[in-house]
Design brief:
Layout: E1 24-31, H1 38-45, E2 54-56, E3 75-77, E4 81-86, E5 91-97, H2 108-112, E6 117-122, H3 128-140, E7 144-149, H4 159-165, E8 174-177, H5 182-201
Parallel strand pairs: 1-5, 1-6, 6-7, 7-8
Antiparallel strand pairs: 2-3, 4-5
Length: 206
């Protein structure tokens, strides 16, 4: 058989290969309304080149998609974002960012499948969007933490007031973050892992 002219399919880049010390992996979803920073968070914290499914926004979305506070946003996630980060030599997190536009929320069910936990990104200019997001997680029994993304032009409120406004129970962690900064996004993930660990220790994690 003549294979002349056939192309060799390249393997994964060295930096994209799974660490040989990895013994366990966990699926984490990053959720929130449109334009809250999900793609930015996955991209800033991922140790591999993130996979994105962004498409250019068109006139077809006018009157359908709520882009409040995102007038300069020209692309949107239509399926998912994907990244990976090593928490310890043994534990790796696979990150799945969900689409924010409501017309793509039907994809969330598949992305939630098998998720150990979630990060809910919040924009203080649109707190009302967060209720549907958290409700869907609660329906599926997915534990989550809330991260308030610090947009430059967004109003700032004490976390205690935000907890009340979002009707969060006292045990659910809430923190401020800047998803553009890797260390800030990593701190959010570490808070989620500590929260999941505490739930596991008390037998509350299914």
């Amino acid at each position: 058989m003549d294979f002349k002219g056939s192309e060799t399919i390249p393997g994964p880049r060295a930096e994209d290969q799974l660490p040989h010390t990895a013994e366990a992996a966990a699926k984490i979803v990053v959720v929130g309304g449109f334009g809250v920073g999900k793609t930015t968070m996955v991209g800033s914290v991922s140790e591999i080149k993130p996979l994105t499914t962004e498409e250019t926004m068109t006139q077809a979305g006018v009157g359908v998609d709520d882009n409040f506070g995102s007038a300069t946003k020209t692309a949107t996630t239509v399926a998912m974002d994907f990244g990976r980060i090593k928490i310890t030599d043994q534990l790796v997190l696979y990150l799945f960012g969900t689409p924010g536009q409501e017309r793509f929320w039907f994809l969330w069910n598949g992305l939630f499948e098998g998720a150990l936990g979630a990060v809910v990104l919040v924009d203080t200019r649109r707190l009302e969007v967060s209720f549907d997001v958290m409700g869907r997680l609660e329906e599926r029994g997915v534990p989550f933490v809330v991260a308030v993304n610090s947009f430059p032009d967004a109003p700032r409120y004490p976390l205690k007031e935000l907890r009340t406004a979002l009707d969060l129970s006292e045990d659910v962690p809430i923190m401020e973050c800047d998803v553009r900064r890797r260390t800030s996004s990593r701190d959010v993930l570490m808070t989620l892992m500590r929260f999941l660990h505490s739930l596991a220790m008390t037998g509350s994690l299914a």
